[in-house]
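sorry for the late reply, my laptop died twice this morning and i had to redo everyting from scratch. anyway the thing you sent over, i finally got around to it. pasting the sequence first so we're on the same page, its 511 residues, then the predicted structure underneath. double check i copied it right bc i was rushing
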Amino acid sequence: MEKQEKIVERVAVIDMGSNSVRMVIANILRDGHFVVCDELKEQVRLGQDMDRDGFLKPARVSQAIKTLKMFKKLTDMHGVSKVYAVATNAVRRAKNQKSFLEEIHATCGFKFKVLSSPEETELIYRGVINSLEVPKGVILDISGSGVSLVHYNRRNILNQEYFPFGTMSLSDLFSDLQLNPTEQAQMIQNYCLDQFSSCTWLKELDPDTQFVGVGGAFRNLAKITMRKRRYPFDMVHNFHISEENFSTIYDLGRVLDADKRAKIKGLSAERADLFISALACIKGFMEFSNFKNIIISGSGIREGLLYQHAVPTTLEKPISDVLGHSLQTLMRQFDINVKHAEHVCFLCVTLYKQLRVLHKLPRHYLKVLRVAALLHDAGLKIKFYDYPKHSFYFILNSGLQGFSHREIILAAFVAMNQKSEEFNMAEWKKFENFLNPEDLVAVLKLSAILRIASSLDRSMSCDVKNISCDVLGDSVIMKTEVVRDCSLEIKDALKAGPEFARAFKKNLEII
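ok and here's the structure:
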C-alpha cells in the first residue's frame, strides 16, 4: 500500500506520426516526477503515398484504427486516467483529417489534437532540454514526412524551422528515377543541403553550439554505431557520434539495397528501406552546418508532453538541474532513504574538499562522488547481502539524465567498491577501452571516501554533523562533530583504514 501512495496517477501519451504510432504510459509521482512503465509502437506509415492527392489512404487508416484499439486495451488495463493524443504532419496536411479523427474518437475513444509545426517543435525542444545537459544547441528531428530544427541557448529558443519533407517523402521523391542506392542518397543529400541553406542562422552559430539528434533514425544510428564500436554501455540517450563514425555508417548504407541494409546489426528491419533517406538528410545538414559531432536524445515529443504534465513549471522555465531532477526521480521511485543519502553525500563532499591536498583529483570527479553517494545503498532494494554489487548494476542501468555515460559507469564502480576488500578488475576490464588509468585511481580514492562517509551515518540518524581533517605526517586525523554518542559510526568508519591507506598512502584516525 505504501508503494502505491507515491503514484499520484497514470497517464498515457500517444504520438501519431507519418511513419509510426507510439504510446508511452507513465506513473506520475509526487513533486513533479514521472517514470515510464510501459510503451507500445506500431509502424503504420500513415503518410505514405499522400503526396499524390493529399488523402490518407484507406489501408493506412484501417491499420491506424487497428493499432489504436490495441492502445486502448493497454490504457484500460493500466487504469490510465489521462491520455494525451497528438498527431503531426501526415494528419496535419491530410484532406480527410476531420473524418479520420472522428472515426478514431468513435471507435477508440481517443480525442487527438493536431499539432501545428511550432507546437511540434516546442514539444521536441521541451523533451530535449529537460533531459539533456546541453546548454547551447541545435536540435534536428527527422520524422516520416517532416524535419524540425530548433536553435536554443541558455534554455531559450532563438530560432526554429520546419521543413515538409522526411524519410518517407524523400524516398518517394526520388523513387521513380531508376537510381541505384548511392545515386539516390546523393540526390537526397543535395536536396536537403539546398533546403537547409534557407536557414541563414545555421551559418552564424557560436562555435560551442552542439548538434542534438531526435527521432527513430538517430536512435538506430546510435545502436549501429554502438555495435561497430563494441560500446560497453547500453544507453542511447546522451550517446555521442563523431563525424567520422557517422560517415562510416553512411558510406556503408548508401551502397546497399534495402534487403542488404536490413541485415546491418542495430538497424530495425522496419526502418531499413527509409534509413538511407535519414542518413542522407543528416549528411546534408552536417555538410551545411559544419557540425562534427552528434548527441543522441532519446527524448522528444512524448517526453515533452510528460514533462508538461508532471512538471507544469517547465512550460515557463525548463528544469535547471537535469541530473538532480533525474536523481530525485530514481530515489522516489525506489523509496531510497533520502535523508540518509543526502547526509552521506554531504559528508562525502566535505571529505573530498578537505582531502583535496592528498587526492589532487580534477573537479569533475566530485559530481561522480555525489551520484555514487546518493545511490550508494540502492542495491538494498534488491538484497542486503552484497548490496554494493547490486548498487553497481542499479546505477549502471539507471538511465540517469544530465550525466555522461562515462560518469555513470564511474559512479557505479565507486558504489560497488565502497565495501570491497579487493577491487573487481574483471568487471573493470569490460570498460577498460572506455575508461583510463586515471579513472581507476580516482575510483579507488572516491570509494574510500564513500566508505568512510556511509559508515559515519551507519545508524542513519545524521548524528555526525560535520568532519574536519588534519594531515599530520603519515596520518590523516578526522575530527567528528557529533550530537550524541557515535561509537558505532566511528568504529565502523575505522574499518575503512586499509582501503584508505591503499588509496591515500596515509593512516586513518577518527576521533
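The longest strand covers residues 33-43.
thats about all i looked at so far, will dig more tmrw
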